[in-house]
Design a protein that fits this description.
The complex is a heterodimer of chains A (310) and B (158). By secondary structure, chain A is an alpha+beta fold. Chain A is built from 13 helices and 14 strands. Chain A has 3 domains: 70 residues, no CATH class; 116 residues, Uridine Diphospho-n-acetylenolpyruvylglucosamine Reductase, domain 3, CATH 3.30.465; 109 residues, CO dehydrogenase flavoprotein, C-terminal domain (Enolase-like, domain 1), CATH 3.30.390. The chains are: A alpha+beta (310), B alpha+beta (158). Chains A and B meet through strand 3 and helix 7 of A and helix 1 and strand 4 of B.
Chain lengths: 310, 158
């Protein structure tokens, strides 16, 4: 067998593998229902006692070296219904366990929701995109979650399902703090509903991080502008990640842009409004000042680029 | 609990614990040691194996989640004594230094070449972005993947 340092070997025993019978994990459950109905039954019965897992790319990191603390898993991967991606005339409906990889490569999503497809293609790296899911990204509720600013910009809603019925919430009402959301112990996030964007849409997605792959974003930006045939802005949403306790839309940007001709917009002013609407912190991925500067510059550039696009 | 899966073409039935990771199942229970534990947090890619046709970091997958899955590791690439073109190419290009990350790199590259038989250097770099190597500086790894692509195109393999 392989040689391991004593320290590693000890840790490994606590975590998993053959030595794991030293800790009382024999009683742990692994629930892998094949139907949503059954999953909701389990959710009602176990509540937060059962740790919900899909791709596991966040939860397995959270429980790194202490997997023994999990009493029960509720694995959603066998529920085919949750993987569906449907597109009709009005809406795009993405199942919660659609992986980042599938979203990034889906031709219709690339066409209608380019910011989301692009963001999904920049989550972690291939190995993470293979497993990680859009529902997981939302439920983890990190302010830096890569798909979250695009989803806000596309005005997405989430469906929270329980035995008692469904709640449909605006994405912006789902998040309440860093890694905190309003999901109840008997609910599962089952799908994401996005109104199908009109033809006259311009959008810009940007992710800033210390390296191109496998990095938690220092900042993300998703701006969507809807214009009429004369180039007048009918509707705009500027959304940002990692600049506030939750992913946010800076509504003042949308209000300022509305009814202006895109080609005549003062891009610098838009940048200033965006900066005034965020509340970043200093952390390992960037200082507050850095985040304000980058928010400003990315916003200004995005507006200028979009104005040139028409 | 009992799971059934296929690994390197062989159907297996194994007893696993709910909190056991796929990486530990592969290394400790099955004794396949190509996949390594680098970070244990999905950041280094040393534990990359192919699960249902996609590269995954096996430290972030629960063993129980592999029920019904098809798994491929480096041990499953060679046919008898004949190495896979990717393995040959890594040797010929001198892409291996300490070797710790290489099985992971090869599995990701294997997936890349399945979908893109003649990738550009940039495409190779993007595909392998999740496999960290601290020795080579990546140039020779990229060389090796290109060489393998050429070999496979010439040999009609893959």
């Amino acid at each position: 067998m392989q040689k391991e340092s004593k320290l590693n070997a000890e840790n490994r025993q606590k975590t998993s593998g053959r030595g794991s019978n030293k800790v009382p994990i024999g009683s742990a459950d692994f629930l892998a229902p094949e139907s949503l109905e059954k999953a909701l039954d389990y959710r009602k019965r176990y509540g937060f006692e059962a740790t919900v897992i899909a791709g596991g790319t966040d939860i397995m990191v959270d429980y790194f070296e202490r997997l023994y603390e999990v009493n029960s898993w509720l694995d959603l991967n066998k529920i085919e219904e949750l993987k569906k991606i449907e597109i009709n005339d009005e809406e795009i409906i993405i199942g919660a366990t659609a992986t980042h990889k599938r979203i990034a490569e889906h031709p219709d999503l690339q066409k209608y929701l380019p910011m989301l497809a692009h963001a999904s293609s920049e989550v972690g790296a291939w190995q993470i995109q293979s497993r990680g899911t859009i529902g997981g990204n939302i439920v983890t509720s990190s302010p830096a979650g890569d798909t979250l600013a695009p989803l806000l910009a596309y005005d997405a809603k989430v469906v929270l399902q329980s035995k008692g019925g469904n709640r449909i919430l605006d994405m912006s009402d789902f998040f309440i703090g860093p890694k905190e959301n309003v999901e109840e112990s008997d609910e599962l996030l089952t799908k994401i509903i996005i109104p199908k964007p009109s033809e006259n849409i311009l959008s810009r997605w940007k992710k800033v991080g210390k390296r191109k792959a496998l990095i938690i974003s220092s900042l993300t930006m998703a701006i969507l502008i809807e214009i009429d045939n004369d180039g007048v802005i009918e509707n705009a949403r500027a959304c940002y990640g990692a600049v506030a306790p939750t992913p946010i839309e800076v509504k003042n940007v949308g209000d300022y842009l509305k009814n202006q001709k895109l080609k005549e917009v003062d891009a610098k002013k838009v940048g200033e409004i965006a900066v005034a609407g965020i509340s970043p912190i200093d952390d390992i991925r960037g200082t507050e000042q850095y985040r304000r500067q980058v928010t400003h510059d990315l916003t200004v550039n995005a507006i200028k680029e979009m104005a040139e696009e028409i | 609990m009992e799971i059934k899966f296929t690994i390197n073409g062989e159907e297996r039935t194994e007893q696993v614990k709910p909190n056991q990771r796929l990486l530990d199942l592969i290394r400790k229970d099955l004794g396949l040691l190509s996949a390594k534990e680098g970070c244990g947090k999905g950041e280094c890619g040393a534990c990359t194996v192919i699960m249902n046709g996609e590269p995954v970091t096996s430290c972030l997958v629960l063993a129980a989640q592999a029920d019904g899955a098809e798994i491929l590791t480096v041990e499953g690439l060679a046919e008898g004594d004949k190495l896979h073109p990717l393995q040959e190419a890594f040797i010929e290009a001198g892409a291996v230094q300490c070797g710790f990350c290489i099985p992971g790199c090869i599995m990701t590259a294997y997936c890349l070449l399945k979908t893109n038989s003649l990738p550009t250097r940039q495409e190779i770099r993007t595909a392998l972005a999740g496999n960290i190597c601290r020795c080579t500086g990546y140039q020779k790894i990229v060389d090796a993947v290109q060489l393998a692509a050429d070999k496979m195109a010439a040999g009609g393999e893959g």
